[in-house]
Amino acid sequence: MENNNKTYLITGAAGFIGFHVARRYLEAGQQVIGFDNINDYYSVQLKEDRLDLLKDYPGFSFVEGDLKDRELVARVFSNYRPEIVIHLAAQAGVRYSLENPHAYVDSNLVGFLNILEAVAIMMSSICFLPPQVLSMEPTARCHLRPLTMSIILSVFMQPPRNPMS
């Protein structure tokens, strides 16, 4: 893999997918900032063990925190200046979302909005790709023109369509 000297922010770095994505980029010699709240939805020890493995790579930095903390997210972007953001953090579990709707909304909606705002303010271009076209190759490139926050929000804030109409 080609070393393109990029700094990646990977949210959800202690989770299964986040860990493997972070490790892949670190193995390619990239700089990775891992971000995770290490909640107890499933084994905290397992998450800490994954982070311990990532900490062995010289290009890895870790921030423990919650994406709902807008000021922390802004500081991470300001201090680390990531060039690429891979947002994988989420509160999993449909049943959990019904039992704990505020935790789900804080993580999956407020946290995502805070990432979008930081990206819109701090980064020169934004690229959203559907999961089926994402590549774990660090050489993958995105050649889309920058989007503005209003365009992003207009996509996410559309009212649901009536499937019967």
Describe the structure.
- The protein has a four-stranded parallel sheet, with helices on both faces.
- The chain is built from six helices and four strands; from the N terminus they run E-H-E-H-E-H-E-H-H-H.
- Strand 2, helix 2 and strand 3 form a beta-alpha-beta unit.
- The chain is an alpha/beta fold and 165 residues long.
Structural class by sheet pairing and helices: alpha/beta
Overall mean confidence score, pLDDT: 79
Question: Roughly how many Å apart are the termini?
Answer: 49 Å
What can be said about the biggest beta sheet? 4 strands, parallel
Q: What is the fold's blueprint, element by element?
A:
Elements: E1 7-11, H1 16-27, E2 31-36, H2 44-55, E3 60-64, H3 70-80, E4 84-87, H4 94-99, H5 101-122, H6 149-156
Parallel strand pairs: 1-2, 1-4, 2-3
Helix pairs in contact: 1-2, 3-5
Features:
165 residues; 4 strands
Quick summary of this structure?
The protein has 165 residues and is of the alpha/beta class.
